[in-house]
Write a structure and sequence with these properties.
conserved putative lor/sdh protein from methanococcus maripaludis s2 fold; Elongation Factor Tu (Ef-tu), domain 3; six-stranded antiparallel beta barrel; 22 strands; rod-shaped; membrane; YknX-like_C; transmembrane helix; Beta-barrel_RND_2; Efflux RND transporter periplasmic adaptor subunit
Length: 392
């Protein structure tokens, strides 16, 4: 079978016609030419008008005031509050057998010396016991004197043969027994006198009386509790509550200024002890500030303290430059491409020059001083440099 005979001769002639083939390719060539023209137009537009567009965008960017804060030397000041207490509290109670209180000689707010009698207790029975023992001492001393005299006379008769050696030994033993009985009686008398002396309530140390809890006529024993409370030498302290970071920045011996609540007095104190532990709930510890006696200091009252914890080189910014959110404190800095970048910082003490930034800045950055709350990270700005934070 001849397949060529199945195709019409007219179609064969059109397929072989070069003119027809060119006509079929013409739409494709036109489409390609249009695409090339559009591409060239786009490139030309960007080349001639792109830079001008960037300038227009930049001219529309917000203007912000920036400053390179540098570093300043400031004195770190820690503000704290706490409770006033006696530096060394001395509770005074009964040390003897006790009894009925006959007299109380001091009251709260008085000063006492070491060994001073603060209260006395009835000792009528104990005095009679002491008198009886004193008489026993007298009897024992008389017996000793007699035994010694008998021994001395017998010793003079030994050489004459009137007294035997056995008699001398017996008289010597009698003398020694009398001496021993005298020592026992004397010891008993001394013990009774010591017990009687302990009936008096005396000040173990010199100090300031904080509390009096006893009255004449009251019966007291060793279970009666604290009768008097003393502040040794009248010395007080402020138990200042400080956070972990502040405790790490102070040391023993640092000078402080303490102001009792309700007064305008500034008392000079000194940190004498720093708590070795931190409360796991409040994350705070105690710094104890030693203070001399002053009528404005009342144990149990509150006071505030300013603790100078040394100097440091830090960046200082006005309050307007600092922002806060759930992540903490931050500022905006402007990079070389004039885009605002968020920078997290740690702030420190407030000074007359501004707020110190203890971490996050090296001082050379261009920090946005105002309007930071209206910026977004990555936003293009027009920076206006200000040399000093307090300048115009």
């Amino acid at each position: 079978m001849n397949y060529e005979s199945a195709i019409p001769s007219s179609e064969i002639s059109m397929m072989d016609d070069p003119v027809q083939r060119a006509a079929n390719r013409r739409p494709l060539i036109i489409a390609a030419a249009v695409a090339v023209a559009l591409l060239l137009a786009y490139i030309g537009y960007n080349y001639f008008f792109g830079a001008k567009g960037d300038e227009e965008v930049a001219s529309q960017a917000p203007m912000v005031t920036v400053m390179a804060p540098g570093k300043q030397q400031i004195t770190r000041t820690i503000n704290a509050t706490g409770t006033v207490a006696a530096r060394r509290e001395i509770p005074v109670s009964i040390v003897g057998e006790g009894g009925r209180v006959t007299n109380v000689y001091v009251d709260a707010g008085d000063w006492v010396k070491q060994g001073q009698i603060m209260a006395s207790i009835d000792r009528s029975v104990q005095s009679q016991q002491a008198a009886g023992l004193e008489a026993s001492v007298g009897v024992s001393r008389a017996d000793l004197n007699l035994a010694q005299a008998n021994l001395d006379r017998a010793a003079q008769l030994v050489d004459r043969g009137f007294i035997s050696k056995a008699d001398i030994d017996r008289l010597t033993a009698t003398r020694d027994s009398a001496a021993a009985r005298l020592r026992v009686a004397q010891a008993q008398l001394n013990e009774t006198r010591a017990r009687n002396n302990r009936l008096n309530v005396v000040a173990p140390k010199a100090g300031f009386v904080l509390e009096r809890n006893v009255e004449p006529g009251q019966t007291v024993t060793q279970g009666s509790g604290v009768l008097f409370l003393l502040a040794q030498n009248g010395e007080m302290e402020l138990q200042a509550q400080l956070g972990e970071a502040d405790l790490a920045n102070i040391s023993v011996g640092i000078s402080t200024q303490v102001t009792p609540v309700g007064t305008d007095k500034n008392l000079t104190g000194q940190v004498w002890q720093i708590s070795p532990t931190i409360d796991p709930q409040s994350r705070q510890g105690i710094a104890k500030i030693a203070l001399g006696y002053d009528p404005a200091l009342r144990p149990g009252g509150f006071a505030s303290a300013r603790i100078e914890s040394g100097t440091s080189e830090v960046a200082v910014l006005p309050e307007s430059a600092l922002q806060n959110d759930s992540k903490g404190s931050f500022v905006y800095i402007v990079g070389a491409d004039n885009k605002a970048v968020r920078r997290d910082v740690v702030i420190g003490a407030t000074t007359a020059a501004g707020i110190s930034v203890t971490s996050g800045l090296n001082g050379n950055e261009r920090v946005v001083l105002r309007a930071g709350g209206f910026l977004s990270p990555g936003e293009t700005v027009q920076p206006k440099v200000q040399k000093k934070a307090g300048g115009a």
